Amino acid sequence: MTAALIFEQIINGLQFGLTLFLMAAGLTLVFGVMGLINLAHGSLYMVGAFCCAWVTQQTGSFWLGLGGGVIGAAAAGALIEALVIRRLYDRDHLDQVLATFALILIFSEGTRMVFGSMPLYLNIPNALTGTVALPGVEAYPLYRLFIILAAIAVALLLYALISKTRLGMRIRAGESDREMIAALGVDIKTLYTIVFALGAAIAGLSGALVGALRSVQVGMGEPVLILAFVVIVIGGIGSIKGALIGSILIGLVDTLGRIFLPVILKFFMENSSANSVGAALSSMLIYLMMAGILAVKPKGLFNASN
Amino acid sequence: MKKLVSAGIAALLSCTASVAYADVKVGMITTLSGGGSTLGIDVRDGFELALKQSGNTEIELLIEDDARKPDVAKKLADKFIQKDKVDILTGIIWSNLAMAVVPAATRKGTLYVSPNAGPSALAGKACHENYYNVAWQNDNLHEAMGSHANKAGYKKTFILAPNYPAGTDALKGFQRMYEGELAGELFTKLGQDDYAAEIAQIRASGADSVFFFLPGGMGIAFMKQYAQSGLDVPVMGPAFSFSQDILPAIGDAALGVANSSQWGKDLESDVNAKFVAGFKETYGRLPSLYASQGYDAANLILSAMAKADVSDKDAFRAALKQADFESVRGDFKFGNNNHPIQDIYVREVVKEDGQITNKIVGVAIKGHQDVYASKCRMK
Questions:
Q1: pLDDT for A9-52, tens place per residue?
Q2: What range does the domain containing B104 cover?
Q3: Same domain, yes or no: B312 and B246
Q4: B156-162 and B181-188: which strand pairing?
Q5: Do B353 and B214 share a structural domain?
Q6: Residue A279 to residue B187, Cβ atoms within 8 A
Q7: Rounded CA gap, B244 and B236, in Å?
Q8: Between residues 229 and 288 of chain B, which touch chain A (CB distance below 8 Å)?
Q9: What is the C-alpha separation between A305 and B183, in angstroms, rounded?
C-alpha cells in the first residue's frame, strides 16, 4: 500500500463523488425550489444516456450525442413538468412519491419498447481515450479527468447562474416565498418549468457522460438516484453547495472504504473473512455516515432554509 | 347424411388420436422483463426454435414472466402445477429463484428441467430424481477458467466478484482448480458500476492476469473501464460476462478476452449449424449460450417424449436420464445427480464481419463433472 496508490484512490473517490454531484445538483434544485420529491430524476438520467447513445450511433459523433442527451433529457423534463409534475406542487410528499414512481415505470417500459432490453453501445470519444500522468499517478484515464473537469464546470456555472443572474435571483426568491414573487408579477409557472428542465438537463448530461463509462441500459438510473438522495440529505436539502460537499464526501468514503476496510480488517482476522466482512461493511459505510451526520445536524450540513 | 356420418367418424378418430398420444404440458417460468431479461428471452427463443424445428405438435408450452422475483416465480409455479397441471417445469434463470421453486415442485412430483441455474444445493445432498440440469452446475465454468489459467501459465491472478452467493461460489470454483497464487481478491458491491478503485488495486498488485465474474451491466462497465485504464494484464472470466447479448454493448474493449463456455456457435456439428442458422434467420440476431441451453432443454424433453409416455413417470425419468438427444455442444450425458458431464471450452472474443462475437480456441476441461455429485445419493 504505497502513498501513490492512496493518492490515486483519493482521486478516484473525488471523481466518483463529482459524477454523483451532477445527479444530485438537479435533484436538490428541484427539491429546494419547488418542494418536490422527484423519484423520476433517475429516469431523466437514463433518457440522457439513451438519447446520447442513439444520436452517437446515428451521427458517429459523441459530442453531438452529448448535446442530444442534454436536450433530450431537458425536453423530457419540460414535458413531464407540464403534464404531471405541475399538478403535484400543492399535494403532500406521499402523492409526489407515488406519481413520480409511476413515471419511473412508464419511462422504463417506454424505453424498453423503443430500444429493446439489450444494453446499448456507447463508448467514449477517441479524443479522450488513453491515459495521462498525474503527479503521483503514472496513468490516469483521460476520460475520468474530463468528467472531473466537466462536473467542476457545471458546479461553477450553477453557482454563477443562481447567485449572479436575474433568473437565479428569481429562483432564490421562489424558494423562499412562492406566493410573493407570483404577486410581484413573475411568471412562476414558466419559472418552475425552466428550473425543472434545467435539473433534467444536468441529469441528462450526467447520464450521457457516465453512460459512456458504465453501461447504457434500462433501470440504470435507480441505483444512482438512491445515492443522490443520500447526498442531498447529507448536504442539506436545496443547497447546491451542500450537494457538492455531500457528494465528494460520499465518493471518498465509499471508494476509500471499499478498498481500505478489507486491508485494515486483515490485521484482526484471516484473509477470506476480512474480504467478505470488509465488502459488507463498506457497502453500509455511507449510510452509517448519513446516520451519524443526521444525528448531529438533523437538517444536513448546509441547510438552505437557514 | 353421408357428410354428417363422415364428419362424425372424423371427430371420433381425432378424439381417439388425442387419447392415444397424451400431450406433454410444459410450463416455462423465466425472466422476460426488468434487469436480466435478455437471458430469459434467449432461453425462451431457443426453446421455441427447437420445438418449431422438430415439428412436434404434442407439446404444449405455457410461458410466464417472473420479473426476476422469487415470490413471483413461486406463485407461477403453484399456478402451473395446480391449475394448469403441467408435466414439466423449466425456464428459471437465477439460482435464488430456482431455490424458491424447484425443491417444492420436484417433491410434488413435477419434473423440472433447468436451462440455466445450477445451485450447488440441488447438485449435492438435495439432488432429486425429478430435477434435471441441462446447462451446468454453477461452479463449472469458473472451474474451467481456473484450469485454463494453469495451462496459460498464470502464476499471480487477481480475482474479483460481487459479494453475493453466486459471486463467492465463482471465486471458490476458480480457486478449486487454479494452482498459482492470488495477487489479490476483492468482493465488489452487487450492482456496482464504477470500478476505478478496483482497477487501481489490480495495477498496484502486480498481477499477471485477472479473473472476474461480473454478470450483466456490471461486466459491461468493468470491461469498458478496464480497457480505458491502459492496463494490459490479460483478463478472463466465465461466458456470462461475454455472452452474445451483452458483447455488442461492451464493444471493442472486449476483444481478445478469454472466457469459458460449454458451447460456442462455431462448434462443428450438424445440429449446432442448424441451431445457429435457424436462430439467426428467425430472430435476426446471433444466439447466446443461454439460447443454446433453451434449445437443448427442449430437445432433451422431445427425446424423452419419443421414448416414453409422460404419464408413466418412471419410464419418462429413465428416458430423460439417458439424454438421448444431439446437444448443440457435442458430447453430453448426465451424471448420477442429473447434472451434465461435458467438455468446457475456452473462447476468445473476436470481431467477425464487423460483429463482436466469440470463437472457440481450445478445451479448458474435458468430461467435467461437478464436485457435488459425490454427495448426491442417486445413482
A1: 999 999 999 999 999 998 988 888 888 889 999 999 999 999 99
A2: 21-138+268-342
A3: no
A4: parallel
A5: yes
A6: yes
A7: 16
A8: 229-231, 245-246, 248-253
A9: 51
